[in-house]
Amino acid sequence: MSEILYGRQPVLEMLRADKRQVISVMMRKSVKPTKETDEIIRLASKAGARVEAVEQRELSQLTHDGNHQGIAARVSNKTAFKYNDLAKKLSKKDGDSIVLILDHIQDTGNLGALLRVADAVGVDAVIIPSDRAAQVTPAVVRASAGAAEHVDVCVVTNLVRTMKDLKKDGFWISGLEACDEAKNYTDADLTGAVVLVVGSEGDGLGRLVRENCDFLVKFPLYGKVTSLNAASAGAVVLYEVRRQRK
């Protein structure tokens, strides 16, 4: 199975990550050479992919009128980690892993932004449910500016069971929830092997997911608006997780 990634940065980061089979890279005939396009051509050739000059109309059709910036690539589908493989990877981190769980995030923009932050902060893995949640599509890769290509994503059928498995493997699970019993995020101990769970845009954390968190965290808001979107809220706490590791 293959899919079309589009946009200069997403295609470039896909090639840099070197995690997919690259079938072909397509550039608009009138695209002006830049350092980015030169590197895309070099990395595509290194990957054994053909580079084709195509018309604007063809790119628009392939990307369903997405913002392709004159560049697209046909690549193999992104491979999701299985939990067993993920557990083996995390076991090598000596108890200092950061895992992000997304509890039924449905907006592709939020998912892309969270994957971008996860890469920036150095999250070891992102876990998402297989049903009723956005998946890592070309639109999400575009929204992440290609950062999604560098992040290991594990797709699971049952978030609560996965949380219990992570606890058995020595993780403490923190849920992001604005409620009275939640700790201020700067007062919580977010060191060691930690999981941050970010809830969905409308409902927040699901009941069972919330009940299986070891503790809840929140952050203050000083303006008139009473909440941030899922991506912004997740970014605030993820950077605190990283800050506490100094």
The CATH architecture of the largest domain would be 3-Layer(aba) Sandwich
The N- and C-terminal alpha carbons lie at a distance of: 42 Å
* Overall body shape: elongated
CATH topology of the largest domain: Alpha/beta knot
Overall structural domain count: 2
Oligomer: single chain
Instruction: Determine the structural class based on helices, strands and strand pairing.
Output: alpha/beta
Name the beta content range: 15-25%
User: For the largest beta sheet, what order do the strands appear in spatially?
Assistant: 7-6-5-10-8-11-9
Description:
It contains nine helices and eleven strands. Helix 1 runs parallel beside helix 2 and helix 5 packs parallel to helix 9. With 246 residues, the protein is of the alpha/beta class. It has two domains: 75 residues, Ribosomal protein L30/S12 (60s Ribosomal Protein L30, Chain: A); 162 residues, Alpha/beta knot. The protein is elongated.
